[in-house]
């Protein structure tokens, strides 16, 4: 990293965060969906509706069809549906009342402070930013990132721009394990740039890492991934100020 260039930190986004469009929350007939349990309701409220969710939001009729394939008697279908709902609500409760979906890109009404949505403005490209968000990777100590067009409000795959990310391996940090060119999730699964749908490319990297954005015919642009403030297990936080008399 050049000594003369200080990596630019990501800044939090307030108000209108750059995001993808959220699917409509209605069925194809225009009738609002009714969720069958709290697990479905959480997914519906957070991620919306659309073709990708058709197998998640399941009706009594659909569930009965599956149960009949298991030779469940008609008289017991209602009991099994209740057991199904109890099972999924148990999963929700065991995860602290939330459903973790790794890699999901932010929605328009996402709370920037809750989802830790940050941006780094790319020099000489007033409309382009590097977007950084939680992506369900808190426990892994990582953040997701992509390239985002603020004016058009769409994500852009790096291959379309000729961009790439390089991780700087700093001694004494976990970045030594992932130093060098950062691959997208899609590339790691064997997808070629042509096979990645427009705007669907995403990367992830450890907290606090220093990255270089490499662009054709330009010097690398250095920036730093944010870190999360955590209290180590077993550490007691200081209480609010109280009189000492």
Question: What would a concise description of this structure say?
Answer:
This protein is α+β, with helices and mostly antiparallel strands and 245 residues long. 20% of the residues lie in helices and 18% in strands. The chain has six helices and eleven strands.
Features:
6-stranded antiparallel sheet; 11 strands; 5-stranded mixed sheet; alpha+beta; 245 residues; globular; single chain
Characterize the structure shown.
Residues 1-11 have a biased composition (Basic residues). The chain has 245 residues and is of the alpha+beta class. The chain has a domain at 9-18 and 103-224. The chain has six helices and eleven strands. It has helices at residues 38-47, 60-69, 77-94, 112-115, 158-161, 185-188; strands at 8-9, 11-12, 118-121, 128-133, 142-149, 154-156, 164-167, 180-181, 203-206, 210-214, 221-224. The strands form two sheets. Strands 2, 3, 4, 5, 6 and 9 form a six-stranded antiparallel beta sheet that branches. The protein has a five-stranded mixed beta sheet with strand order 1-11-10-7-8, with no helix packed on it. The longest helix is centred in the middle third of the chain and has 18 residues, at 77-94. The radius of gyration is 22 Å and the shape is globular. Residues 12-26 have low confidence and may be disordered.
């Amino acid at each position: 990293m050049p000594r003369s260039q200080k990596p630019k930190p990501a800044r939090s986004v307030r108000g209108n965060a750059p995001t993808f469009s959220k699917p409509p929350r209605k069925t194809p007939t225009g009738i609002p969906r009714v969720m069958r349990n709290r697990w479905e309701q959480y997914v519906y409220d957070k991620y919306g509706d659309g073709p990708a969710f058709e197998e998640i939001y399941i009706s009594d009729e659909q569930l009965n069809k599956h149960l009949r394939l298991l030779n469940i008697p008609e008289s017991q279908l209602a009991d099994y549906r209740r057991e199904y709902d109890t099972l999924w609500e148990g999963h929700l409760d065991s995860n602290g009342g939330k459903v973790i979906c790794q890699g999901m890109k932010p929605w328009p009404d996402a709370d920037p402070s809750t989802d830790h949505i940050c941006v780094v403005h790319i020099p000489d490209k007033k409309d382009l930013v590097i977007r950084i968000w939680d992506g369900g990777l808190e426990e892994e100590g990582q953040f997701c990132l992509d390239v985002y067009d603020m004016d058009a409000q769409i994500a852009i795959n790096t291959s379309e721009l000729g961009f790439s990310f390089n991780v700087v391996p700093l001694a004494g940090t976990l970045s030594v394990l992932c130093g060098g060119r950062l691959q997208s999730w899609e590339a790691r699964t064997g997808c070629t740039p042509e096979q990645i749908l427009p705007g669907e490319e995403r990367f992830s990297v450890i907290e606090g890492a220093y990255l270089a954005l490499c662009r054709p015919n330009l010097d690398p642009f250095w920036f730093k991934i944010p870190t999360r403030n955590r209290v180590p297990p077993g550490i007691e936080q200081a209480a609010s100020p109280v009189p000492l008399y």
